[in-house]
Every structure is written in structure tokens, then in C-alpha cells.
Amino acid sequence: MIKFFLMVNKQGQTRLSKYYEHLEINKRTLLETEVIKSCLSRSNEQCSFIEYKDFKLIYRQYAALFIVVGVDDTENEMAIYEFIHNFVEVLDEYFSRVSELDIMFNLDKVHIILDEMVLNGCIVETNRARILAPLLILDKMSES
Amino acid sequence: MVVPSLKLQDLIEEIRGAKTQAQEREVIQKECAHIRASFRDGDPLHRHRQLAKLLYVHMLGYPAHFGQMECLKLIASPRFSDKRMGYLGAMLLLDERQDAHLLITNSIKNDLSQGSQPVQGLALCTLSTVGSAEMCRDLATEVEKLLLQPSPYVRKKAVLTAVHMIRKVPELSNIFLPPCAQLLQERHHGILLGTITLITELCEGSPAALRHFRKVVPQLVEILRTLVTSGYSAEHSISGVSDPFLQDPQGPVELKGRGKEALGSQPDPSRCSPQRWIFLLSPMTPYPMSSSIFQPLTQPQVQILRLLRILGRNHEDSSETMNDLLAQVATNTETSRNAGNAVLLETVLTIMDIRSAAGLRVLAVNILGRFLLNSDKNIRYVALTSLLRLVQSDHSAVQRHRSTVVECLQEPDTSLSRRALELSLALVNSSNVRSMTRELQGFLESCPPDLRADCASGILLAAERFAPTKRWHIDTILHVLTTAGTHVRDDAVANLTQLIGGAQELHAYSVCRLYSALAEDISQQPLVQVAAWCIGEYGDLLLEGSCEETEPLQVEEEEVLVLLEKVLQSHMSLPATRGYALTALMKLSTRLRGDNNRIRQVVSIYGSCLDVELQQRAVEYNTLFRKYDHMRAAILEKMPLMERGGPQVDEEAEESKEARLSEAAPVPTEPQASKLLDLLDLLDGTSGDSQHPPLDPSPGGTLVHLLDLPCAPPALAPIPNVKVFEREGLQLNLSFARPSEIPALLLITATATNSSGSDVTHFVCQAAVPKSIQLQLQAPSGDTVPAQGGLPITQLLRILNPNKAPLRLKLRLTYNHFGQSVQEIFEVNNLPLETWQ
After folding, report:
1. Where do the coiled-coil regions begin and end (chain A) (predicted)?
2. What does the pLDDT look like over B768-781, one tens digit per residue?
3. Rg of the Cα trace of chain B?
4. What does pTM read for this prediction?
5. How many separate domains does chain A show?
6. Which of residues 239-298 of B touch A (CB under 8 A)?
């Protein structure tokens, strides 16, 4: 089960945070800073899986943005690693060469995309077309 | 003055523009004040915009609880954009602990039953994230209805909401179990994925569900097979998918770049070039040939494999059905892409968990071995982790990859080298101990500090278990102490001293080596302690310099004393070390041939040391010199060999004492028992255990056996009585009883009757059984059988025969009859078969 999904940049600013298990707000900021600290301190030769308290962290770096997913012991790390890339590809398709600014200014859309893909910590949809279809319909509706 | 409210984008710009933390806080507080005012005024049009800003601020870590009621209002509004924002806010702000939480139940209920599909989707999403137990109970029926709706968009979300509900309220699994069979027939991957997760959750929750779902294993196998063999998702075929979102009546949907255009920001002409359009509905266009062509299939495959693992665990039949498929997946999956590796990993884990064929397990271990050689460090990491889980069960298979594992010790990444270390330690066995220890010692010298303690203790443990010779063992421990002395455990010193003490032939060798090590470096405390002890004990051997195994060392007495004094005075020495050194000095006073003035001087100096322990020792030793000099030699003699591992030995000794105490019931027969044991030759080697059970099956142990036994078979037919002995009117009969709840236990009652004219006195009956059977004799009712059918003696024998070994019983009787003492030894050979079958 996915416990949380974070997108944090190199300066430690959170761009997206989604928690699938309740955590108090002050603990969240603490968690985010610690997580980004451990991710930043890793070099290129080190692997993308970290053990942090009772979570496993799987992270991938895209330019200046770190996407970190915290899971519990039952998940397959490689599958989550794939999932992160899948998510970024979906974003890339929707925003056409997505950048950090896109994510910042369209936070609600990114939330919707994430909600299409992950429901309560379980991955529900990985098919790009299906994920984006509702969003596109909605965009057309709001335009008209 | 009303300041116009900012749009979300502008707010973000402002926050980004803030140079310091304080400035940012100021901006945010000002904005929050606006938002609060706006909420109070109840402006419906812009409410969702305000909430959006509030959520952004919340993400940055600022309090946002005043937005909770607004979420409710937004959810209740009919406009879709309001609802969307309201539900998003609910997910982020309203968790179970908030009071406003329950209020959204009604809104969700309405939306679930009456809303359009997107609205239902939103409601389901929120419900699955923040639904509390009461909400789940209320809304379970709604969700169940939605499970069977035709639209896949809603169904896949409903399935996962069901998963959440089951997690919160396990009783609801009854509602969600029946639809699963129908849902499995779906070809839509989203629903399939959700269903698999649901079934997984159900199976983990209750064993009854597990049994129920074992029946669908063949179906799952088929689904997985189609997923593996098809090149891309099969359900992209033209017919059959009635999904409104994919069939937009207004024409092909342009996919790329929509997000930016919808916002109204400047569309970059180069980015939305026509070649980038992807016509979703054209049947001739396959799924876009990007690297992610296999991605849609990874997650379903992984989930199905995980479910198969749960279903196949400890179940022979299901495991057999899966064997072929797992082999196929393992061989056919492409390993060039990460997605393939993910699936392969899950396959390996599944193979190891179910009852698979031996060949399959070897295949799995080989796959992991191949992973270890992969250049991608992530794959190496998961391979090492999985191998660690497997090493206990498939030791020999993992041994084959030992050299690769040892190479992984050199990884720059700590988490990988830690795992490689654990795995290497687990792979040490008696045949490879020398080479492995050499590698591990090399690693110890260069490893990062946090791994040193583990490595050192691991090497010591391995050396203890598999040391080929004592000298090698001592060498290894010495090497570890010199390299990583500060990181070893506390009992390493004790172990080493005990080891050296036990190896008499190596005394000279050890003391020479320890002396040279000490002369080089006195900072490693465990080393210094051991060396000090050794020099004290075997100082005379050191001075003889007669060790053949190392270069001869010419050591003068003075040098030894100087070294020990250095240890005493060094500020690096711990108080315990100083104690060792002082005692060593004292012992040397008897071992050395020279005079003891120097030693006496040192000892008297320390008589006024500040450390209480040292002071006490020094004062006592001083007294030894002055008043009790005649006893000094005797007191400071060489120590005898210490008992190894104190507490363990005591426990075992206590257990055996307990065993003997509770066997005290047949106490009167005890003295003869030893003689009985001599006489018994019917048993393999040593005799059976009437009085001296081996430590394991002590009565405590017997009780454990009794409790372990499987439960109640049907009642057995009564076993006929047997007459085993008759002489001059004295008869011995055996009657059998088997308590129905413990089938391996047989109760024999031996009855001695006397039909002769003379009393039988001092009657003693003893019994012996083969070694695999346990016997317990209870005290007889008496030792006299009066004449002419007087009251018989009965004695109960309890026989425990769990292995159903053939029961042989040898009896020895001694008694006085007709004024003569009689002794009879015989084997009972008419025991009925039922006694042991």
C-alpha cells in the first residue's frame, strides 16, 4: 500500500503532497524535510530505494524535482519505480513537456490525475488514455 | 476597502516572489485573512477559488482548518467545478478526527446515487480516502450497486472503495465477496486491477475467503497468461469497449497540449504541431510506440502474481496449477526493460512462497543470480534483499552465487553492501569458511564505520561455528580485534580468553602473538585486555621465547613489565583494562625469575589510586606481598579452564534436575533401576529410559509432546487384556487403555494377583521399552499380595509412542514367595498389535 506521494524540489519546497494514511500536519513537514534530505544526500551510484523508519522510500529525480513514494513492506519496489515513471509520462502528455512550473500552477489538475491513478494507496489505472480522458472532457466542458 | 481577491496563480507568484520565510508568512497570512473574510461573506461564485488557494497554503504547511465548512458547502453545490474543489478539499482537510467529517456522509450518499459519472467518481475517491467506519457502513450498499454498473470508469473506482471499506470494517467483506466472481470476467484492466486488489484484501482478511478464492486460481492463471503473451493490452481491440470517455461523439480528441491551452496561457506553436495529434479512436493505430508500451501491463501482472502467492501459500493443488504458468512467465518476460524486471521479481517471490517444484525454485534463484550481475543498482538491491529471504530455505541453491555476492561487498552504496554482508555471513559454512573469512576480513578493513560492528561480530560468530582449527580461530579473532577492536561485542574478550585457555598447545603461540600486537598498539581495548590476561597467565612461556610457530621473540623481563606499566598509565585505557593489567603484573611476580621490586613498587603506588576498584586490588596485592608471601605462589597459579557460556549451561542443568525430581514418583525402584539398565539388552545400544529420560523428553517435554499431538481421532476399540506371567499362583496381567484424545499414549495397568497359599511380599516390578518409546512408571499400590486371592497390586505404566514403533516390553519382577526370593526377567511377547498401531 502506498503511504504517501511527494514531489519535492531540490530546495526542499513541496510541490505536491498526498497522504494515504493520516499524519498530523506538523509531522508532515518534518517527514518531508527528512525525506528530501536523505534523497539529496544520495549520489548517482546509489540505488533508488531507501529504508526510512517503517516505510520504504522509492524516489526518482527528474531535473530539479524529486518524486518520492513511501510504501510499506508488501509492495514490489520495482513496480512502484515503474509507476513513478508512468505518472510522469502521463503528466508529460497532458501538459506537453511538463515542467515544475506546470505542476505548481495546475496543482488541482495534477491532483486529479493522481487520483485517477491511485486510490487509497492502491494503483488503479496505468493506461494513459484512460487517465486523461475524463480530464479532457472536463476541460472541454469548462471551456464551453 | 475591498481588496480584489487574487487568483491562485497570482498567489503562487507572490509566494515565489517572497525572498525570506518571514515575507512568505506575511503574504500568506494576509491572504488567509482575505479568504476568511470571503468565507464569512459567503460569496458562492468565488468560493472554489478561495478554497484552491487555501489548499495550496495548506500544502505548504500552514493551518487551514477554517476551510472545512466551506468544503461542505462546495460539495453540496450543483456546479461541477465547485464539487471538484470541495471533494479535493475534503480529502486534504477532513480526516476522521475532524468533527465536520460526518457531515459529508449525506452529500456523498446523494452524489453516489444520483450524480453523473464524474461526480460519482469524485465521491468514490473521497470516500475511499477519508471514509470512516460509520460512513463505510452507511454507504456500503450504495457502493455495491455501483460495482455492477455498466460504466468501467465508475466500477474501477467502486472496487477500490470497496477495498478501503473492507479495511475499515471487516464485516463488510460478506457484501463484497459475491460480486468478485463476476468482476473477474472483465477484460478492462482498470477493473481487473481493482478486483485483484479486492480479492487480495479479502483473502488476507479471512481464511474462509481464502479457501473460497482458491477455486478461481485457474481463471487467474489464464488471465495472466493472456497478459504475458499478448504484445500490448488485448482489450484495446476494437469491439467491446463501451466507455463513454473513449468514444467522444464530437470527434477525435487532441491529446497533447490540452492542459496548457485550457488554462489560456500562451500556446507555443511548435509544441502543438499537428504531427503530435494522436487519434485515439482509430482502430488501425496501435497504442503509441513509446517505451511505456508494456507499462499498462506491469501493474496487473504484478498484482495477479501477488494474489497467486497468497492463494498458493501452503496449498499443494493451487501451487501445482501455477507451476507451468510461473515457469512460462519467468522465461518469457523481457529483462531489458525495467517493467519486465518488476514482473520477474514478483514471479520469483511468488515461486519462493508457494509449494513449487524444486526445478522452479532453482530457476528462481538463478534469476536472482542474474539480477546480481545486472548493471542497474536497483535491480542488484532487490536481488540481494530477495536472496536474503531465501537463504534459509534454499541454502544450496544460493551457495552457487556466493562469489557474486562477495563481489557485491565492494559496492559504494551502503545499503547494498550491508545486504551483501548479511548474505555473505549467512552463506558461510564449514567448507568455505577460510576463503569467506579472508574476504570478510578484507572488507572489515575498508568498510564504512556503521557496518563494522556487524561485520566484526559476524566474523566472530562464523569463526566460532566453523573454525577448522583452534589456531586459525585464535588468529581470526586476533585479526578482528586488531582491525576493529572497538566495535566488537563485550563478550568477545571472554570468549577469546576461554578459547586460549582451552588450547594448551597454543599457549606459547598466542602469548607471543598477543605480545607483539600489544607492543604495536595499546589503544584497542579488547585486544589490550586479552593480551594483558595472557601475558599474566603465560608470561613464563613468553620469556622462554620457545614458540616454533612464529619467529622467535626475545623478550626481556623488563620489557614486559614496561609494557604493562604503559598500559596501566595510558589515558586510553579503560578502568577494566587497568584492572587486567594490574592483575597481570601481580601474576608475573610468581612467573618471572627476577626480583619483584619493580612490581611491588607499582602495586604500592596504585594503593592510593583514585579509582576504587584499582585501589582495592592494589591494596590487596600489597598485603599479599607483605603478610601472605608464603601463599602468593599458590594463589597466583595458572587458572583452570573456565566453564563455557555460564547461563546456558545452568539452564540445562536445571532442566535435567527438574526431570529427575519429577520422576521421583517411582523413587523406591530407583536404586535397582541402574542394575536393570545393565540387564536390558533388547534395545539398540543403551537401555531404555525408565528412570533416566534424556534431557529432551523430560516430563515437561513429555507434556509438550502430549499437547502437540493432533486432536481427537475416533475412539479406538478396546484392547484385550493379556496375561504375561504365571508362576506358582502368582499371576501378572496387563490391561490396556488408550485415552481418546491422545492416541499415542497407552496406559497399561499391571495387576499382580496371588492365588497361592502363601503371601507374596516385597513385590517389585520394573519395566523397560525401546529407546524411541517413552515409559513412565507410577508407584505401585503396594508391595504385598496376600494369599488366596487377596487384594492385588496394581501399577500404572504410561507409554508414549508417537512414532508407532513396535512396542517391546521387558519386565523384571522380584519378590518373596514361599520363603524364597524370586527374580524373574522376561520379555512380553504376546502384546496385541493394537498396543502400538
Report:
1. none
2. 888 888 888 888 88
3. 41
4. 0.62
5. 1
6. 243, 245-246, 248, 253, 255-260, 262-263, 271-272, 276, 280, 290, 292, 295-296, 298
